[in-house]
Prior knowledge:
Structural class: alpha/beta
Amino acid sequence: xxxxxxxxxxxxxxxxxxxxxxxxxxxxxxxxxxxxxxxxxxxxxxxxxxxxxxxxxxxxxxxxxxxxxxxxxxxxxxxxxxxxxxxxxxxxxxxxxxxxxxxxxxxxxxxxxxxxxxxxxxxxxxxxxxxxxxxxxxxxxxxxxxxxxxxxxxxxxxxxxxxxxxxxxxxxxxxxxxxxxxxxxxxxxxxxxxxxxxxxxxxxxxxxxxxxxxxxxxxxxxxxxxxxxxxxxxxxxxxxxxxxxxxxxxxxxxxxxxxxxxxxxxxxxxxxxxxxxxxxxxxxxxxxxxxxxxxxxxxxxxxxxxxxxxxxxxxxxxxxxxxxxxxx
Length: 328
């Protein structure tokens, strides 16, 4: 029977304070940290319904695009037998600001960032955000925007690191700002669980077309530092992210080799309808190769057949894996 354990140990909080039990694209919010005390949200009626449904194998409240609905790799449910969880979440994904230092074509066409009151920012962090972290083992930043480009996210990271010395950090980042000096100044250089770097290309000429405002040479410098941290066991998981679409799919094999130079694992995602009001979203059928009617769909299949995608350090997830499994 399908099961998902995320609502029992994990939440995501966006820049408006809305709390979800997983990706907001897959499920509705269970509350808002600026409108209700967190203890009322964490074991409120909305989340209890979700948990009880999952205990019964019911995914009706989840979006059909959720990969866990029909996932055969079912997480253990032995420790979860109640719709009430006494401890606060062990893992919290935070998107307090959607600010970014680049305009990657996959997610945004314009510069934008969350509006918030800078005069009350520190008070909000102390009174609203930090108390949620009391049982957390992992804080995950970079769900929307780049955490190292946001003054508010940087303050949350720094204060969380000071208040909770055992917390580890996960980052999804474009890798341009997260230098060794920045990580040391935040006092997290030896407290990083994972770093996922969104790159989407294996060459500088493709990179500059996708990541507007990026700097290939600065990126490579920071990747070298991440690789050294991984070598010293300062990072558990070091991974490159590649979202596949019509203008970069031919570089997929080269991207695996590119990642190998830095001893990084690789995850390939198919282009998704996550970000609204972008040129790619408006012309999704033009860029997405999953549709069998796309003129490059068969070319993608030929690439997916290559054995370079066989090793365990290469992840095709999720539509690409399904497509590859069908053709092999």
